[in-house]
Design a protein that fits this description.
Number of domains: 2
CATH architecture of the largest domain: 4-Layer Sandwich
Strand content: 25-35%
CATH class of the largest domain: Alpha Beta
Strand order of the largest sheet: 2-1-5-4-3
Structural class: alpha+beta
CATH superfamily of the largest domain: PPM-type phosphatase domain
Distance between the termini: 128 Å
Helix content: 25-40%
CATH topology of the largest domain: Phosphatase 2c, domain 1
């Protein structure tokens, strides 16, 4: 009969053999591909998982192919230029994305992890490589790229739509008026991908005078654009029926109250008579009054404060008539200029606007562009709100 010592030895040998079988089975059927190569890249061992993935025969791979030979053309170049040098310098690489070629022509995206085993003399003996199937990850990444591309295309379309819609609400160029220079400038907030509420218009009325209107509708986007369109066309229609600026703004107030009771706007309307000086009659509806700059004098606000438009059925509005005279400039502007804020929190403000206006020379178009640019530069080139202004000069 076998002794207890013999029995213990047999059991230990059995467990060792069983463990060896488990290790070998784990290697062959691991959920990832395993390869071992010599320092020159020749495959010396490969597991069944990799062979199943790719369709290769073990006898055609071991001792006959280099690891780079199993990769796509791009993968082979990347192996020679990146993976192999990294292994020589650092003894390891992690999560390098390449593609392995299958015998049927398919390509499997994989992530490569590899380490170099060195001998006692420090020389490399073997390179151990683990390959993880990245098919689903690649599909996810491609879907993310497609989603990003779709988002960028959608954003580009939205920006183009916003620019087109905004352009339809603002005249492309001020008209030519005998005896009067007209300059205008508009700067959208941010990237200009949303329709703003600032607007202006310049047109001739039925009696031969000219009308200049500038305003700011609350909010942004399509809903603001509908009110902006309503404001422009209401003002044009009303101006043809009644020359009084106050009557025109009352008609605008009534239209907003009736059609958009959840919206409001501010506006300033100027009736210009080029043959009378030129003479300008100004009416302000909840808006910042225009600034009049005359040679040798500080710019001063023109007009009396009036009621915000679109809130109340009855509004209080006043008309003020002034003559521009030689060298004068009348500037109508929105709060995108005065409320322009620097990074330190300081506002551009009306005082800074007056100071800038007092020192500027040039025709109406140049002054308009310089004032708008000054407000944008004050915000480090990133305006937080839309900016619109119109400059009138005799000449």
């Amino acid at each position: 009969m076998p002794s207890c010592e013999d029995t213990e030895l047999s059991t230990e040998a059995f467990l060792d053999a069983l463990l060896d079988d488990d290790v070998e089975d784990l290697y062959e059927n691991a959920p990832c591909g395993y390869l071992s190569t010599s320092p020159d890249g020749t495959v010396i061992k490969v597991n069944g998982t990799f062979l199943t993935w790719t369709g290769h025969d073990r006898r055609e791979v071991v001792g006959r192919k280099r690891f780079a030979d199993l990769l796509s053309a791009g993968g082979r170049i990347f192996y020679e230029t990146h993976i192999a040098p990294m292994l020589r310098m650092q003894d390891r690489v992690r999560e390098i994305a390449v593609e392995v070629l299958c015998t049927d022509g398919r390509r499997i995206p994989v992530l490569v992890n590899a380490v170099v085993k060195r001998g006692a003399d420090g020389e490399p003996q073997v390179v151990r490589i683990a390959l993880f199937d990245a098919t689903e990850r690649r599909a996810y990444e491609q879907e993310l790229l497609l989603a990003r591309k779709r988002a960028e295309e959608s954003e580009a379309r939205a920006q183009e739509l916003a620019r087109t819609l905004q352009a339809s609400l603002i005249p492309p160029h001020p008209p030519t008026i005998p005896g009067l220079q007209v300059g205008a400038a508009y700067r959208p907030a941010g990237a200009g991908d949303e329709v703003g509420g600032d607007f202006y218009d310049v047109f001739q009325t039925r009696d031969g005078a000219w009308a200049v209107v500038l305003g700011d509708v609350c909010g942004k986007g399509v809903h603001a654009a509908t009110v902006t369109a309503l404001a422009r066309y209401t003002v044009r229609a009303a101006a043809m029926q009644d020359p009084s600026p106050a009557s025109v703004l009352r008609a605008l107030n009534e239209a907003i109250v009736r059609q958009h009771p959840d919206r409001y706007c501010t506006a300033v309307y100027a009736r210009v008579e080029p043959d009378a000086g030129p003479a300008v009659t100004v009416c302000v509806g909840g808006h910042l009054p225009p600034l009049l700059a005359r040679p040798g004098a500080e710019p001063e606000p023109i007009g009396r404060e009036g009621t915000l438009l679109g809130i109340f059925d009855d509004v209080e509005l006043h008309e003020v008539r002034v003559s521009l005279g030689p060298g004068a400039s009348l500037v109508l502007f929105t709060d995108g200029i005065t409320e322009a804020r620097a990074r330190d929190g300081a506002f551009f403000g009306e005082a800074r606007l007056r100071q800038a206006l007092a020192t500027m020379t040039g025709d109406a178009a140049e002054v308009a562009d310089l004032l708008a640019s000054a407000a944008v530069d004050f915000q480090s080139g990133d305006p937080r709100d839309d900016i619109a202004l119109v400059v009138l000069q005799p000449g």
